[in-house]
Structure formats: structure tokens, C-alpha cells
User: Fold this.
Amino acid sequence: MRCAHTLKAIGSVELLAAVGLILPAVLDIAPVLVPLAATGLVLLFACAVTMRLRRGEKATTADDLIYLALAAFIAWGRFGPESFTG
Assistant:
């Protein structure tokens, strides 16, 4: 029972992060939220990779690493030295 609540919480965090990546850029309202959401996703997927490795789920770690790399790319692109935000 506890695991189901944890999975729902993680799913909610991922959904909020996706909204945080898309809506501020589309609506041009507080675009600083985009790299913050991407940074949050980097932390989330770093924890997911760690958890999967501890549980011995190496086959599904590749997906999390890809998502981690994409979120890191977005955060770096928005916070980085030559930000593409304009």
C-alpha cells in the first residue's frame, strides 16, 4: 500500500515538472521556471537511477539516464553561459 502512494507522488512530481517545462515557455510568463523545473527533473531522475541500481533494475536504468541527460541539457541551455533564451 505504501508503494502505491509513493508511485502516485512520484508521478505527480513528474507531471508538475512537465507542466513547468512547457507552460512558462509557451505562455511567456516567468520563463525562469523552465530551467528550475529542468533542474528539479535532473535531481528526480538522479534519484531514480540510484534507486533502480540499488534494487538491481539495470535494464530500466537506461531510460532514466536518457531523461536525465535531456533535462540536464535543457537546464544547461537555459542557465548556461550562452543561454538560448534570447
Summary: The longest helix spans residues 2-27. DSSP finds three helices and no strands in the chain. The helical segments are 2-27, 33-55, 61-79. The chain has a mean pLDDT of 84.
